[in-house]
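Entry for the shared binder. Reason: the reviewer on the internal report wants the predicted structure included alongside the sequence.
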Amino acid sequence: MDHGTSSPLGMFAPMPEEGEEITARAGEPLPDGTVIANQDAVIAALRTVHDPEIPVNIYDLGLIYDLGIHTDGSARVDMSLTAPACPVAGEIPYWVANAVAEVEGIGEVVVNLIWDPPWTMDRMSEDAKLALGID
């Protein structure tokens, strides 16, 4: 999956300031009668997205703060990053929106990049900590 080409911000997206929210959107409304995806399918899609500097997916890093799947198949993701200075901070929300929108049974997707509360290593899964050698 080529996440970088699908962002409307392009290759030189501005770095967000701390506290600045970024909203990314992808997908289209689903036709009536479509079977809505379950949370496990969306989490599997989130696990396909990686920060290029960290060999662990964003879900296991604890960057996903909230995931809502609505009865019309639309989805909302609130996420953060390990640091506002992440070189791809302006891109990752679009990667997430596109990954979630590719899930069968998901329509429109809105991803909000938020900074409060700040991310800490305590949010990481045990698998992520093990992969990064953190006790």
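Summary line for the report: Residues 1-19 have pLDDT under 50 and may be disordered.
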